[in-house]
Amino acid sequence: MGMLIYLVALAALFGLLFGFDEGVIAGALPHITQVFDISAGEEGFLTASVPLGAVAGAIVAAAFADRLGRRMVLFLCSVLFAIGAIASGLSHDEWMLIFARLILGIAIGSSAMAAPMFLAELAPARHRGAIVSAFQLMITVGILVSYLLSYALDPLGAWRWMLGLGAVPALICLFGILRAPESPRWLAMRGRVGEAHDVIAAIQPHLSDKETRRIVDAIVHSHSVETHSTGWRAFLSAEVRPIVFFTIAAFLLQQVSGINAIIYYAPTIMGHAGFDGITTQLAATVGVGVVNVLMTIVAMYAVDKFGRRPLFIIGFIGTAISLAVIAVTMMESTPPLAPVALVGLFAYIAFFAISLGPLPWLYMSELFPLALRSKGMAMASVANWSCNFLVVFLFPVVVLNFGAAATFAIFCAFCTIGAVYAWRYAPETKGVTLEDIEKQHAMAVT
Ligand code: BGC
What we know:
Radius of gyration: 22 Å
Distance between the termini: 44 Å
Bound molecules: beta-D-glucopyranose
Strand content: under 5%
Protein backbone atom coordinates (compact mmCIF):
# COMPACT_ATOMS: atom_id res chain seq x y z
CA MET A 1 0.00 0.00 0.00
CA GLY A 2 2.91 2.34 0.83
CA MET A 3 4.25 1.98 -2.71
CA LEU A 4 0.78 2.62 -4.18
CA ILE A 5 0.33 5.83 -2.15
CA TYR A 6 3.81 6.95 -3.21
CA LEU A 7 3.02 6.41 -6.89
CA VAL A 8 -0.41 8.09 -6.71
CA ALA A 9 1.13 11.12 -4.94
CA LEU A 10 3.88 11.27 -7.54
CA ALA A 11 1.54 11.08 -10.54
CA ALA A 12 -0.82 13.59 -8.90
CA LEU A 13 2.14 15.98 -8.62
CA PHE A 14 2.24 16.01 -12.41
CA GLY A 15 -1.41 17.17 -12.28
CA LEU A 16 -0.34 19.96 -9.92
CA LEU A 17 2.42 21.01 -12.35
CA PHE A 18 -0.13 21.01 -15.20
CA GLY A 19 -2.43 23.38 -13.28
CA PHE A 20 0.43 25.49 -11.92
CA ASP A 21 2.05 26.20 -15.28
CA GLU A 22 -1.36 26.91 -16.86
CA GLY A 23 -2.53 29.25 -14.09
CA VAL A 24 0.70 31.08 -13.26
CA ILE A 25 0.61 33.18 -16.41
CA ALA A 26 -2.55 34.91 -15.11
CA GLY A 27 -0.70 36.65 -12.25
CA ALA A 28 2.55 37.13 -14.14
CA LEU A 29 1.04 38.57 -17.33
CA PRO A 30 0.16 42.08 -16.03
CA HIS A 31 3.86 42.51 -15.05
CA ILE A 32 5.24 40.93 -18.22
CA THR A 33 3.20 43.24 -20.47
CA GLN A 34 4.72 46.23 -18.64
CA VAL A 35 8.31 44.97 -18.86
CA PHE A 36 8.32 43.66 -22.44
CA ASP A 37 5.83 46.07 -24.06
CA ILE A 38 4.06 43.46 -26.20
CA SER A 39 1.14 43.67 -28.64
CA ALA A 40 -2.28 41.95 -28.15
CA GLY A 41 -1.23 39.31 -30.72
CA GLU A 42 2.05 38.59 -28.88
CA GLU A 43 0.18 38.48 -25.58
CA GLY A 44 -2.16 35.87 -27.05
CA PHE A 45 0.73 33.87 -28.42
CA LEU A 46 2.64 34.06 -25.15
CA THR A 47 -0.33 32.76 -23.18
CA ALA A 48 -1.36 30.23 -25.83
CA SER A 49 2.15 28.80 -26.23
CA VAL A 50 1.37 26.30 -23.43
CA PRO A 51 -1.65 24.70 -25.16
CA LEU A 52 0.20 24.86 -28.50
CA GLY A 53 3.15 22.93 -27.03
CA ALA A 54 0.65 20.56 -25.41
CA VAL A 55 -0.84 19.59 -28.81
CA ALA A 56 2.65 18.42 -29.82
CA GLY A 57 3.18 16.85 -26.38
CA ALA A 58 0.01 14.73 -26.63
CA ILE A 59 1.05 13.39 -30.05
CA VAL A 60 4.62 12.68 -28.92
CA ALA A 61 3.48 10.93 -25.73
CA ALA A 62 1.05 8.71 -27.64
CA ALA A 63 3.99 7.50 -29.75
CA PHE A 64 6.64 7.24 -27.03
CA ALA A 65 4.60 5.90 -24.10
CA ASP A 66 4.46 2.50 -25.81
CA ARG A 67 8.02 2.55 -27.12
CA LEU A 68 9.96 3.97 -24.15
CA GLY A 69 7.55 3.16 -21.35
CA ARG A 70 5.37 5.41 -19.19
CA ARG A 71 8.10 5.95 -16.60
CA MET A 72 10.66 7.19 -19.12
CA VAL A 73 8.11 9.60 -20.67
CA LEU A 74 7.32 10.97 -17.20
CA PHE A 75 11.02 11.30 -16.42
CA LEU A 76 11.57 13.31 -19.62
CA CYS A 77 8.48 15.41 -18.79
CA SER A 78 9.90 16.36 -15.39
CA VAL A 79 13.18 17.41 -17.04
CA LEU A 80 11.19 19.60 -19.48
CA PHE A 81 9.04 21.00 -16.65
CA ALA A 82 12.21 22.03 -14.75
CA ILE A 83 13.97 23.51 -17.82
CA GLY A 84 10.79 25.33 -18.93
CA ALA A 85 10.19 26.89 -15.48
CA ILE A 86 13.80 28.03 -15.02
CA ALA A 87 14.02 29.40 -18.58
CA SER A 88 10.69 31.29 -18.10
CA GLY A 89 12.01 32.91 -14.94
CA LEU A 90 15.26 33.95 -16.66
CA SER A 91 13.67 35.18 -19.94
CA HIS A 92 15.24 38.35 -21.33
CA ASP A 93 12.54 39.00 -23.93
CA GLU A 94 9.04 37.85 -24.91
CA TRP A 95 10.35 35.36 -27.50
CA MET A 96 12.52 33.53 -24.98
CA LEU A 97 9.49 33.39 -22.69
CA ILE A 98 7.30 32.05 -25.50
CA PHE A 99 9.92 29.36 -26.24
CA ALA A 100 10.18 28.41 -22.55
CA ARG A 101 6.39 28.11 -22.31
CA LEU A 102 6.26 25.99 -25.45
CA ILE A 103 8.61 23.57 -23.64
CA LEU A 104 6.30 23.62 -20.61
CA GLY A 105 3.37 22.95 -22.95
CA ILE A 106 5.09 19.86 -24.38
CA ALA A 107 5.65 18.62 -20.81
CA ILE A 108 2.02 19.28 -19.88
CA GLY A 109 0.56 17.64 -22.99
CA SER A 110 2.76 14.55 -22.61
CA SER A 111 2.30 14.13 -18.89
CA ALA A 112 -1.48 14.71 -19.14
CA MET A 113 -1.53 11.52 -21.25
CA ALA A 114 1.22 9.53 -19.55
CA ALA A 115 0.41 10.21 -15.88
CA PRO A 116 -3.28 9.13 -15.95
CA MET A 117 -2.24 6.14 -18.10
CA PHE A 118 0.48 5.22 -15.57
CA LEU A 119 -2.05 5.62 -12.74
CA ALA A 120 -4.80 3.60 -14.42
CA GLU A 121 -2.32 0.80 -15.16
CA LEU A 122 -0.92 0.69 -11.64
CA ALA A 123 -4.14 1.09 -9.69
CA PRO A 124 -6.01 -1.91 -8.33
CA ALA A 125 -9.34 -2.07 -10.27
CA ARG A 126 -11.58 -1.14 -7.33
CA HIS A 127 -9.70 2.15 -6.67
CA ARG A 128 -9.14 3.13 -10.29
CA GLY A 129 -11.95 5.74 -10.59
CA ALA A 130 -10.93 7.63 -7.45
CA ILE A 131 -7.23 7.46 -8.30
CA VAL A 132 -7.71 8.80 -11.83
CA SER A 133 -10.04 11.59 -10.54
CA ALA A 134 -7.32 12.62 -8.09
CA PHE A 135 -5.28 13.72 -11.10
CA GLN A 136 -8.10 16.06 -12.21
CA LEU A 137 -8.44 17.49 -8.74
CA MET A 138 -4.71 18.19 -8.59
CA ILE A 139 -4.95 20.25 -11.81
CA THR A 140 -7.35 22.62 -10.06
CA VAL A 141 -5.15 22.60 -6.92
CA GLY A 142 -2.16 23.53 -9.13
CA ILE A 143 -4.12 26.45 -10.60
CA LEU A 144 -5.02 27.63 -7.07
CA VAL A 145 -1.40 27.32 -5.86
CA SER A 146 -0.23 29.44 -8.80
CA TYR A 147 -2.87 32.09 -8.03
CA LEU A 148 -1.89 32.18 -4.34
CA LEU A 149 1.79 32.46 -5.21
CA SER A 150 1.05 35.28 -7.66
CA TYR A 151 -0.97 37.06 -4.98
CA ALA A 152 1.88 36.71 -2.44
CA LEU A 153 4.65 37.78 -4.82
CA ASP A 154 2.72 40.53 -6.60
CA PRO A 155 3.62 43.40 -4.20
CA LEU A 156 7.29 42.61 -4.91
CA GLY A 157 6.65 42.57 -8.67
CA ALA A 158 8.48 39.23 -8.62
CA TRP A 159 6.98 37.72 -11.77
CA ARG A 160 10.24 35.86 -12.56
CA TRP A 161 9.92 33.98 -9.24
CA MET A 162 6.23 33.23 -9.97
CA LEU A 163 7.26 31.44 -13.18
CA GLY A 164 10.57 30.00 -11.96
CA LEU A 165 9.26 28.41 -8.75
CA GLY A 166 7.49 25.81 -10.91
CA ALA A 167 10.92 24.17 -11.04
CA VAL A 168 10.54 23.03 -7.39
CA PRO A 169 7.68 20.51 -7.91
CA ALA A 170 9.32 19.59 -11.23
CA LEU A 171 12.55 18.58 -9.47
CA ILE A 172 10.57 16.64 -6.84
CA CYS A 173 8.89 14.75 -9.71
CA LEU A 174 12.27 14.17 -11.37
CA PHE A 175 13.83 12.54 -8.31
CA GLY A 176 10.54 10.83 -7.42
CA ILE A 177 10.21 9.09 -10.76
CA LEU A 178 13.76 7.70 -10.49
CA ARG A 179 12.58 5.67 -7.49
CA ALA A 180 9.32 4.56 -9.14
CA PRO A 181 8.86 1.22 -10.88
CA GLU A 182 7.61 0.98 -14.48
CA SER A 183 3.91 0.25 -15.16
CA PRO A 184 3.33 -3.50 -14.80
CA ARG A 185 1.02 -3.42 -17.81
CA TRP A 186 3.73 -1.95 -20.04
CA LEU A 187 6.31 -4.45 -18.71
CA ALA A 188 3.97 -7.34 -19.47
CA MET A 189 3.27 -5.94 -22.94
CA ARG A 190 7.04 -5.96 -23.60
CA GLY A 191 7.31 -9.58 -22.49
CA ARG A 192 8.99 -8.63 -19.18
CA VAL A 193 6.52 -10.77 -17.26
CA GLY A 194 8.79 -11.47 -14.27
CA GLU A 195 9.31 -7.74 -13.63
CA ALA A 196 5.56 -7.07 -14.03
CA HIS A 197 4.92 -9.69 -11.37
CA ASP A 198 7.41 -8.05 -8.96
CA VAL A 199 5.87 -4.59 -9.43
CA ILE A 200 2.32 -5.83 -8.75
CA ALA A 201 3.59 -7.69 -5.69
CA ALA A 202 5.20 -4.45 -4.44
CA ILE A 203 2.05 -2.37 -5.08
CA GLN A 204 -0.39 -4.92 -3.65
CA PRO A 205 1.68 -6.81 -1.05
CA HIS A 206 -1.45 -8.37 0.50
CA LEU A 207 -1.99 -10.57 -2.61
CA SER A 208 -0.79 -14.15 -2.61
CA ASP A 209 1.74 -15.20 -5.23
CA LYS A 210 -1.04 -17.10 -7.04
CA GLU A 211 -3.32 -14.03 -7.18
CA THR A 212 -0.47 -11.83 -8.44
CA ARG A 213 0.30 -14.36 -11.15
CA ARG A 214 -3.39 -14.42 -12.17
CA ILE A 215 -3.37 -10.61 -12.64
CA VAL A 216 -0.21 -10.79 -14.79
CA ASP A 217 -1.73 -13.62 -16.88
CA ALA A 218 -4.90 -11.53 -17.41
CA ILE A 219 -2.80 -8.56 -18.61
CA VAL A 220 -0.81 -10.75 -21.01
CA HIS A 221 -4.04 -12.33 -22.27
CA SER A 222 -5.90 -9.01 -22.76
CA HIS A 223 -2.87 -7.62 -24.59
CA SER A 224 -2.82 -10.55 -27.01
CA VAL A 225 -6.57 -9.98 -27.68
CA GLU A 226 -6.15 -6.19 -27.98
CA THR A 227 -3.29 -6.26 -30.47
CA HIS A 228 -5.66 -7.78 -33.02
CA SER A 229 -8.16 -4.96 -32.77
CA THR A 230 -6.35 -1.67 -32.12
CA GLY A 231 -5.80 -0.31 -35.65
CA TRP A 232 -6.89 3.25 -36.41
CA ARG A 233 -9.48 1.91 -38.86
CA ALA A 234 -11.51 0.64 -35.90
CA PHE A 235 -12.42 4.27 -35.13
CA LEU A 236 -14.42 4.43 -38.36
CA SER A 237 -16.58 1.46 -37.41
CA ALA A 238 -20.28 2.14 -36.86
CA GLU A 239 -20.08 1.46 -33.11
CA VAL A 240 -17.00 3.59 -32.38
CA ARG A 241 -17.66 6.55 -34.71
CA PRO A 242 -20.40 8.08 -32.50
CA ILE A 243 -18.07 7.80 -29.48
CA VAL A 244 -15.27 9.58 -31.35
CA PHE A 245 -17.71 12.27 -32.44
CA PHE A 246 -19.23 12.73 -28.98
CA THR A 247 -15.95 12.83 -27.01
CA ILE A 248 -14.34 15.28 -29.42
CA ALA A 249 -17.48 17.47 -29.41
CA ALA A 250 -17.56 17.37 -25.58
CA PHE A 251 -13.97 18.67 -25.43
CA LEU A 252 -14.53 21.32 -28.12
CA LEU A 253 -17.60 22.57 -26.24
CA GLN A 254 -15.63 22.51 -22.97
CA GLN A 255 -13.04 24.83 -24.50
CA VAL A 256 -15.35 27.21 -26.41
CA SER A 257 -17.20 27.75 -23.13
CA GLY A 258 -14.29 30.14 -22.50
CA ILE A 259 -12.88 28.43 -19.40
CA ASN A 260 -9.24 29.03 -20.23
CA ALA A 261 -9.80 32.65 -21.22
CA ILE A 262 -10.82 32.97 -17.55
CA ILE A 263 -8.16 30.65 -16.06
CA TYR A 264 -5.28 32.24 -18.03
CA TYR A 265 -6.44 35.87 -18.05
CA ALA A 266 -8.41 36.09 -14.77
CA PRO A 267 -6.87 39.34 -13.38
CA THR A 268 -7.17 41.04 -16.78
CA ILE A 269 -10.86 40.02 -16.89
CA MET A 270 -11.35 41.40 -13.37
CA GLY A 271 -9.98 44.66 -14.76
CA HIS A 272 -12.59 44.62 -17.56
CA ALA A 273 -15.24 43.89 -14.91
CA GLY A 274 -14.36 47.13 -13.17
CA PHE A 275 -11.97 46.02 -10.42
CA ASP A 276 -9.23 48.59 -9.99
CA GLY A 277 -5.75 47.68 -8.82
CA ILE A 278 -3.88 44.49 -9.51
CA THR A 279 -3.96 43.33 -5.85
CA THR A 280 -7.79 43.41 -5.81
CA GLN A 281 -7.85 41.67 -9.20
CA LEU A 282 -5.52 38.95 -7.91
CA ALA A 283 -7.59 38.49 -4.73
CA ALA A 284 -10.69 37.92 -6.88
CA THR A 285 -8.63 35.53 -9.02
CA VAL A 286 -7.72 33.49 -5.92
CA GLY A 287 -11.49 33.26 -5.30
CA VAL A 288 -11.91 31.74 -8.79
CA GLY A 289 -9.23 29.15 -7.94
CA VAL A 290 -10.88 28.25 -4.60
CA VAL A 291 -14.35 27.81 -6.18
CA ASN A 292 -12.78 25.64 -8.90
CA VAL A 293 -11.13 23.27 -6.36
CA LEU A 294 -14.17 23.03 -4.06
CA MET A 295 -16.65 22.37 -6.85
CA THR A 296 -14.35 19.76 -8.42
CA ILE A 297 -14.51 17.89 -5.09
CA VAL A 298 -18.34 18.18 -5.18
CA ALA A 299 -18.27 16.90 -8.77
CA MET A 300 -16.41 13.74 -7.71
CA TYR A 301 -19.48 12.78 -5.63
CA ALA A 302 -22.18 14.32 -7.83
CA VAL A 303 -21.32 12.36 -11.00
CA ASP A 304 -22.14 9.06 -9.33
CA LYS A 305 -25.13 10.36 -7.37
CA PHE A 306 -27.01 12.37 -10.01
CA GLY A 307 -25.54 10.85 -13.16
CA ARG A 308 -23.48 12.30 -15.99
CA ARG A 309 -26.28 13.33 -18.34
CA PRO A 310 -28.30 15.68 -16.06
CA LEU A 311 -25.09 17.27 -14.77
CA PHE A 312 -23.81 17.88 -18.29
CA ILE A 313 -27.09 19.56 -19.35
CA ILE A 314 -27.37 21.64 -16.16
CA GLY A 315 -23.69 22.66 -16.47
CA PHE A 316 -24.19 24.15 -19.93
CA ILE A 317 -27.39 25.95 -18.90
CA GLY A 318 -25.69 27.32 -15.76
CA THR A 319 -22.55 28.49 -17.57
CA ALA A 320 -24.65 30.11 -20.33
CA ILE A 321 -26.69 32.10 -17.78
CA SER A 322 -23.56 33.10 -15.81
CA LEU A 323 -21.82 34.23 -19.00
CA ALA A 324 -24.86 36.31 -19.97
CA VAL A 325 -24.64 38.05 -16.57
CA ILE A 326 -20.89 38.69 -17.04
CA ALA A 327 -21.45 40.04 -20.57
CA VAL A 328 -24.15 42.45 -19.40
CA THR A 329 -22.02 43.78 -16.51
CA MET A 330 -19.12 44.36 -18.89
CA MET A 331 -21.21 46.51 -21.19
CA GLU A 332 -20.82 49.20 -18.57
CA SER A 333 -17.48 48.69 -16.83
CA THR A 334 -18.19 50.75 -13.76
CA PRO A 335 -17.24 49.83 -10.18
CA PRO A 336 -20.84 49.33 -8.88
CA LEU A 337 -21.30 46.48 -11.35
CA ALA A 338 -18.01 44.77 -10.48
CA PRO A 339 -19.48 42.70 -7.60
CA VAL A 340 -22.24 41.43 -9.93
CA ALA A 341 -19.61 40.44 -12.49
CA LEU A 342 -17.73 38.60 -9.74
CA VAL A 343 -20.85 36.66 -8.72
CA GLY A 344 -21.31 35.79 -12.42
CA LEU A 345 -17.69 34.59 -12.66
CA PHE A 346 -17.90 32.47 -9.50
CA ALA A 347 -21.20 30.96 -10.68
CA TYR A 348 -19.64 30.23 -14.07
CA ILE A 349 -16.63 28.49 -12.48
CA ALA A 350 -18.91 26.53 -10.11
CA PHE A 351 -21.09 25.24 -12.99
CA PHE A 352 -17.98 24.49 -15.07
CA ALA A 353 -16.16 22.62 -12.29
CA ILE A 354 -19.15 20.42 -11.48
CA SER A 355 -19.91 19.54 -15.07
CA LEU A 356 -18.05 20.75 -18.19
CA GLY A 357 -14.66 20.35 -16.46
CA PRO A 358 -14.60 16.71 -15.36
CA LEU A 359 -17.29 15.16 -17.62
CA PRO A 360 -15.47 15.11 -20.99
CA TRP A 361 -12.52 13.36 -19.28
CA LEU A 362 -14.83 10.88 -17.58
CA TYR A 363 -16.86 10.17 -20.72
CA MET A 364 -13.62 9.66 -22.65
CA SER A 365 -12.34 7.05 -20.19
CA GLU A 366 -15.71 5.27 -19.99
CA LEU A 367 -16.99 5.22 -23.56
CA PHE A 368 -14.01 4.03 -25.61
CA PRO A 369 -13.66 0.24 -25.66
CA LEU A 370 -10.58 -0.85 -23.71
CA ALA A 371 -8.70 -1.87 -26.81
CA LEU A 372 -9.05 1.62 -28.33
CA ARG A 373 -8.75 3.67 -25.17
CA SER A 374 -5.20 5.00 -25.49
CA LYS A 375 -5.57 6.00 -29.15
CA GLY A 376 -9.02 7.46 -28.40
CA MET A 377 -7.48 9.44 -25.52
CA ALA A 378 -4.78 10.77 -27.85
CA MET A 379 -7.36 11.96 -30.41
CA ALA A 380 -9.57 13.62 -27.80
CA SER A 381 -6.51 15.25 -26.14
CA VAL A 382 -5.35 16.72 -29.44
CA ALA A 383 -8.86 18.15 -30.02
CA ASN A 384 -8.87 19.54 -26.50
CA TRP A 385 -5.47 21.25 -26.68
CA SER A 386 -5.94 22.59 -30.22
CA CYS A 387 -9.21 24.26 -29.26
CA ASN A 388 -7.68 25.48 -25.97
CA PHE A 389 -4.89 27.08 -28.04
CA LEU A 390 -7.32 28.82 -30.41
CA VAL A 391 -9.49 30.25 -27.64
CA VAL A 392 -6.56 31.51 -25.55
CA PHE A 393 -4.70 32.86 -28.59
CA LEU A 394 -7.69 34.70 -30.02
CA PHE A 395 -9.09 36.02 -26.72
CA PRO A 396 -6.99 39.25 -26.40
CA VAL A 397 -7.41 40.03 -30.10
CA VAL A 398 -11.19 39.51 -30.02
CA VAL A 399 -11.51 41.59 -26.83
CA LEU A 400 -9.45 44.36 -28.44
CA ASN A 401 -11.57 44.43 -31.59
CA PHE A 402 -15.06 43.64 -30.31
CA GLY A 403 -14.88 44.41 -26.57
CA ALA A 404 -15.11 42.16 -23.49
CA ALA A 405 -18.93 42.15 -23.41
CA ALA A 406 -19.22 40.81 -26.98
CA THR A 407 -16.52 38.19 -26.30
CA PHE A 408 -18.41 36.82 -23.30
CA ALA A 409 -21.66 36.91 -25.30
CA ILE A 410 -19.93 34.61 -27.84
CA PHE A 411 -18.93 32.16 -25.06
CA CYS A 412 -22.56 32.35 -23.83
CA ALA A 413 -23.81 31.41 -27.32
CA PHE A 414 -21.47 28.38 -27.41
CA CYS A 415 -22.72 27.19 -24.00
CA THR A 416 -26.31 27.51 -25.20
CA ILE A 417 -25.43 25.31 -28.20
CA GLY A 418 -23.73 22.96 -25.70
CA ALA A 419 -26.95 22.66 -23.65
CA VAL A 420 -28.94 21.64 -26.74
CA TYR A 421 -26.17 19.23 -27.82
CA ALA A 422 -25.99 17.63 -24.35
CA TRP A 423 -29.78 17.30 -24.23
CA ARG A 424 -29.78 15.58 -27.61
CA TYR A 425 -26.68 13.36 -27.36
CA ALA A 426 -25.22 13.00 -23.83
CA PRO A 427 -25.39 9.35 -22.72
CA GLU A 428 -25.84 8.13 -19.15
CA THR A 429 -23.06 5.85 -17.95
CA LYS A 430 -23.67 6.10 -14.19
CA GLY A 431 -23.46 2.77 -12.37
CA VAL A 432 -22.86 0.78 -15.57
CA THR A 433 -19.72 -1.31 -15.82
CA LEU A 434 -17.30 -0.51 -18.61
CA GLU A 435 -17.95 -3.93 -20.12
CA ASP A 436 -21.71 -3.28 -20.20
CA ILE A 437 -21.15 0.11 -21.84
CA GLU A 438 -19.15 -1.67 -24.55
CA LYS A 439 -21.93 -4.23 -25.00
CA GLN A 440 -24.59 -1.48 -25.28
CA HIS A 441 -22.63 0.17 -28.11
CA ALA A 442 -22.19 -3.14 -29.87
CA MET A 443 -25.94 -3.86 -29.58
CA ALA A 444 -26.89 -0.42 -30.87
CA VAL A 445 -25.43 -1.25 -34.27
CA THR A 446 -26.57 -4.86 -34.59
C1 BGC B 1 -9.86 21.56 -18.83
C2 BGC B 1 -8.72 22.54 -18.81
C3 BGC B 1 -9.03 23.63 -17.79
C4 BGC B 1 -9.36 23.02 -16.44
C5 BGC B 1 -9.79 24.08 -15.45
C6 BGC B 1 -10.08 21.00 -17.44
O1 BGC B 1 -11.12 20.07 -17.44
O2 BGC B 1 -9.58 20.52 -19.77
O3 BGC B 1 -8.54 23.08 -20.09
O4 BGC B 1 -7.94 24.51 -17.64
O5 BGC B 1 -10.38 22.06 -16.56
O6 BGC B 1 -10.09 23.53 -14.20
